[in-house]
Every structure is written in structure tokens, then in C-alpha cells.
Recover the amino acids of this structure.
């Protein structure tokens, strides 16, 4: 039986996360090396852009319409930045999950690989749809000053306060590029973090399907042995058994249950996502009532609303799939 490569399903996520500084080499977390320095610099770059946009609130706080026009983007950006920091902090746990998936107990038999198809197909479809909506939103935001002609007035893609005159050349061009690079970096990281979390949910659900299939085919002389394997498989999937230390010659290895580790990884992320996305959606839809129909700003808001709706849908749909499998 050929070994099933779980990580091959999310190889696109892993590649993009590595590009944006969120997936260090090896099976451990971040170390003192150039990649960690690169990741730190990129995050400081993005957080700086968020800070300057947030500072603009104090300039226009009395104008509620102008405030509503920018605050939903600021909410989204800061949530994404917090998610990046949380992702970095829990990289070691995530790497451990990926290693655990490749163990023999989590391997599907050749016939069982058909059970993986529906969940993985749904995940890939939503990943593609989510990416298209986000890229569409980013393109409209990037070229918004060009599309509505305000680039001649040196308008930036996002309102922000800077300690210099950002509307004179060449500072305008540099600031324009800075905003574009920051928002693309943050959005791409956000998409791939969310879809990776969804993939973990799919993996948990498919492991439950594999366990159910193993239980259905319990027969023969090795019944007791296979039953014990199913019990151990069940414990590793869903039950939180704490953790214990296995002392080896090389190192001490922390061992956790798979689903529990997934929960530890994205628990707070999901809570913040629902709260912030709901508020951002409400503000964006309010802003839709104020802009001219069929304008470039209207289209960007429509794509943004679609992106945020899909983002919430990811957690709801795949979380429900896990709940159904676990309670079955």
C-alpha cells in the first residue's frame, strides 16, 4: 500500500505561507535565522501600514460617514495581523500536527482513499472561490484611484495619516506602493491561514470517516488487535488525553491528540473572526448604500462583502462537518 501524503493536499497553502514568512523549514517552529528575520520585517511592515491607517481615525473621527468608509478595512487588517501573530506563536503545534498526520495510524488504506474525495473536493472549491473574491477585491482597491481618476489628485488607495506629505512626488508613489504591498501581503496570508484551518477540519472529519470504515470491517482472526487499533485511533482523533513526554535520545517530544491540538490552534482565531467579520460586514453594507451604483467603489465593496461572507462560511461549513462526524 502506497503512503498517502496528507501534506500534498495543502502544498499550495504551504508554499504561499512560506513566501509570506509564515512557514519555516523543518518540523519545528521559528529559530534564530534569516527566515525569522524576514518574517519579522514583513510583519513590522504590515503593522506599520495598519498603524498609519488607524491614526487617520483621529483626523476624521467627527465625520461618521468618512469613519464608516475606512473602519471596516481597519478592522479586517488588524484582525489579520493578530491572526498572523497567533499563527507564528503556534507554528510548532501546527508542524507537529502535520507530522502526526503522516503516522501509520492516520494512513487510509487504498480503498479508503475514496472516502477523502468529497471533503477535499469541497475544500478546494471553496479555496478557489475565496481566492478569486479576495484577489478581485485587492485589484479593485489597488487600482481604485486610477479607475475613478483621483490618481491625478494624488489620492492613495487607503486613507491614512503619515508624518510627511504623502501627496507630493516621489513620496506619493512610494507610499502608494507601500500600501499596496502591505494589503496584498496581509490578504494573501489571511486567505491561506483560513483555508489551512479549514483543511485541518477536513482532515479531522476524514479521519472520523476512516475510523467508521475500520469499525465496519472488523472481522477475522485479528479482530481484537484491529479493535484496539480503532480505539487508539479514536483517542488520537477526538479525545483530549492531556499530554505526556516520551524521552528519546535526541529530544523530548510533546505528544497531543489531533483534534484537540487543532482546537488549541484556531480557538481564539475563530472567535475573533466571527466578531470582527460581522462588524465589518455590517459597516461595508452600510457603505454600499452611500456609494454610487456600478462605480468602482461599489464593485470593490461587493467583492469585499463576498470575501468576508466566504471567510465566515469556511468556519461554519467545515466546523459543522467535523461536528456531524464526531457526534455520529
Amino acid at each position: 500500500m502506497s503512503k498517502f501524503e496528507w501534506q500534498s493536499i495543502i502544498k499550495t497553502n504551504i508554499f504561499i505561507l512560506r513566501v509570506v514568512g509564515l512557514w519555516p523549514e523543518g518540523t519545528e517552529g521559528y529559530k534564530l535565522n534569516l527566515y525569522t528575520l524576514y518574517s519579522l520585517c514583513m510583519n513590522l511592515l504590515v503593522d506599520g501600514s495598519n498603524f498609519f491607517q488607524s491614526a487617520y481615525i483621529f483626523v476624521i473621527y467627527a465625520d461618521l460617514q468618512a469613519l464608516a468608509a475606512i473602519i471596516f478595512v481597519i478592522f479586517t487588517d488588524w484582525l489579520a495581523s493578530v491572526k498572523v501573530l497567533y499563527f507564528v506563536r503556534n507554528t510548532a503545534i501546527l508542524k507537529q500536527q502535520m507530522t502526526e498526520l503522516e503516522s501509520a495510524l492516520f494512513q487510509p488504506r487504498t480503498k479508503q482513499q475514496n472516502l477523502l474525495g468529497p471533503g477535499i473536493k469541497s475544500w478546494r472549491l471553496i479555496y478557489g472561490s475565496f481566492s478569486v473574491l479576495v484577489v478581485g477585491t485587492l485589484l479593485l482597491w489597488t487600482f481604485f484611484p486610477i479607475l475613478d481618476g483621483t490618481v491625478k489628485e494624488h489620492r492613495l488607495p487607503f486613507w491614512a495619516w503619515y508624518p510627511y506629505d504623502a501627496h507630493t512626488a516621489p513620496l506619493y508613489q512610494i507610499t502608494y506602493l507601500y500600501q499596496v504591498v502591505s494589503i496584498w501581503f496581509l490578504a494573501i496570508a489571511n486567505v491561506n491561514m483560513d483555508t489551512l484551518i479549514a483543511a485541518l477540519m477536513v482532515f479531522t472529519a476524514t479521519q472520523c470517516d476512516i475510523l467508521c470504515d475500520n469499525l465496519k470491517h472488523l472481522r477475522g482472526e485479528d479482530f481484537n488487535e484491529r479493535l484496539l487499533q480503532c480505539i487508539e485511533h479514536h483517542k488520537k482523533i477526538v479525545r483530549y488525553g492531556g499530554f505526556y513526554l516520551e524521552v528519546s535520545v535526541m529530544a523530548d517530544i510533546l505528544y497531543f491528540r489531533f483534534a484537540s491540538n487543532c482546537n488549541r490552534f484556531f480557538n481564539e482565531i475563530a472567535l475573533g473572526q466571527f466578531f470582527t467579520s460581522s462588524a465589518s460586514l455590517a459597516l461595508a453594507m452600510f457603505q454600499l448604500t452611500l456609494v454610487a451604483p456600478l462605480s468602482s467603489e461599489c464593485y470593490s465593496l461587493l467583492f469585499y462583502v463576498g470575501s468576508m461572507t466566504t471567510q465566515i462560511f469556511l468556519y461554519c461549513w467545515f466546523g459543522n462537518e467535523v461536528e456531524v462526524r464526531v457526534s455520529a
User: Anything to note?
Assistant: The beta strands are 244-247, 252-255.
